[in-house]
Batch of 2 targets.
Target 1
Amino acid sequence: MPGSAVVELVGAGFAYEDGPPVLSGVDFAVPEGRALAVLGRNGSGKTTLLRLLSGGLRCGSGRLRVDGRDVAYDRKGLTRLRTTVQLVVQDPDDQLFAASVGQDVSFGPMNLGLPEDEVRARVRDALEALDIAALEDRPTHLLSYGQRKRAAIAGAVAMRPRVLILDEPTAGLDPHGQERLLAALDGLRAAGTTVVMATHDVDLALRWADDAAVLTPDGPRTGPVAELLADAGLLDAARLRRPWAMSVARLLRARGLLGEGEPAPCTPEELDAWAAARGVRG
Ligand SMILES: Nc1ncnc2c1ncn2[C@@H]1O[C@H](COP(=O)(O)OP(=O)(O)O)[C@@H](O)[C@H]1O
Ligand SMILES: [Mg+2]
């Protein structure tokens, strides 16, 4: 059912050994079919939250649920979780370990005990989705950073998860690499995958996400991304900056150049195209 929670934390609390609580009493749901940005400054708990959602860490208190049912942390429960939710960690070198791209991407599906044909089909589809089919036989240590990022994501995609969770996927990418990655994510979303992305880049969240979860010291605030990012008090509490695109839109509206309901340009390229279409000169 679109919009219902695929995976959710209920009353979740977590602290690292000997550390203060990172999360306490957190309710956090990932609705099916939405693009969700988890926003917070460094150290706000983004990675911890993503690892709790994907089962890599276990809540100290509270529960993790898939389709409304508590996850059992036994072999069967964790397999069910792994085929529903896949996390791609921030550093691809923490994820890639096989000699070649194809071997790495095939590891997860092979471990599920799928027939060879099915594994091959999944690897091919995942490599195509990330636009790296030509790299299948390439040794992973010879890849560029952007290629390693895409190979790591392909490994998660080959598990055909309903929810793909990416920890700061654009960190370290150049602008072209970022655009290629966003295009690949658009393709996965169009094919029905729910995508969750942690980032501290408010402008990226504004242009990419439907919903946002802003991590504040009082816990996450969730809602439509444009609404949350227009809330200056919330951004201050989370110690995030204002999105540049929102300031531009506010200025254009105040000058009567942009109608109230008209979509605002979210990138410099969109602003240029918007200006060119209206004959506005800088
Ligand atoms: N392995 C760990 N052991 C102890 N403390 C950790 C560990 N990982 C993260 N932390 C602490 O937990 C808090 C949240 O970190 P993290 O979830 O990595 O935030 P973010 O991803 O938003 O930067 C920080 O205070 C961080 O120092
Ligand atoms: Mg992090």
Target 2
Amino acid sequence: MHVIVKTNQQENAVPTQAAPEGDDDPFDPGSGRPQSPAQSASKRSGRIVRFPTHRAGILNPAVRSFRKKHFPGITTKLWNDWQWQTSHRIRSLNQLEKMIVLSDVERAAFKQSGTTLPLGITPYYMSLVSPDNPDQPIRRTVIPTIHETVHTTGEADDPLGEDAMSPVPGLVHRYPDRVLLLLSDFCSTYCRYCTRSRVVGHGAIHPSRNRLERAFAYIEQTPSVRDVLISGGDPLMLGEEKLSWVLSRLRQIPHVEIVRIGTKVPAVLPQRITARLVRMLRQYHPLWMSLHFTHPDECTPEASRACAMLADAGIPLGSQTVLLKGVNDNLETMRELVHKLLKMRVRPYYLYQCDPITGSAHFRTPVETGLSIIRGLRGFTSGYALPTYVIDAPGGGGKIPLMPDYVVGREDDALILRNYENKHYRYPEPCNR
Ligand code: SF4
């Protein structure tokens, strides 16, 4: 019973090369995006106007000036190419030092051997990182600090007990009707609070046909599994061909009703969401996606465009957000994030209490912080904007929802309830209950 599959895979290799993407135009009329009146008119007259990807430009001024400063010779077309972004990730202290002024605690992280998660940041995401403020939320999530080497009581490398619930390498079966399939351990950008930092980025999980066929065989032989969540690592870092093969294999299993993909790509590498990718994905409905947004600063025009393409392909989008100290642990930030997500057609789905992974104390907040954020959102904003706050129980107990206490008590046959304004109300229960 284990998850880790040792291979010789190099951490910095893209798991599977995708086919050339010459026609991957986010504004391709075939992408299903709404078109401008000029485009519609051209189409009516039989002439289709195409805007090549690089003409779409770089939408965010901060991103544009970063590229100009650190990648001056790079064309917009290359910048918008996800494979260029992947192969030019910032992966060393030397590269980092040229882009940001490191604080002492950041620099010290590189002098210790205890930091387990590698460094990896796409140039796009790096452009959102403050060059001079080590407390900037986005910077805290991707730049290592010496705090990662501090191990406190109750922390563990595998706090959710996934390794013990893996009947087949890379397949976690925790709940009765669903499984988690880890495709690879590769991400374009590594989050310092990653729950799977014990395996992610270490070349431990490889999307080999052999291993995956064993996982498919297990699912085939387990009729109770109706929902498969594909995660990793980031599944969207695989090329279309490989991903399409995985999805088609799952679709051949009659009792698999839905497939979900967990990904942070729209936030850290929105260039990966291409017309080619969404055309492939839409063949495998019902397909859902759990995105991973952490802070409102990630909701850029680029991310918004990526989400629009996925939503236009009919993929319901939800966001899983980890509650992180100094990143999003206050009501204002969380309110801004959930509002921006809804505008990007992404439903805030879960707010996770940060898992007690080894070296995570500097990211973890008291549970009361999360409850007070939920209290500040419920009733004060749309219900759709409200994520479910959960703790993934250490040891593999599954997600446990945490709610502020809205049931005050009982009086005779009435339930006493507290509303969002802290006013009390009586609800008469049915007499014959
Ligand atoms: S994208 Fe997900 S799997 Fe990858 S490092 Fe971040 S949290 Fe971990």
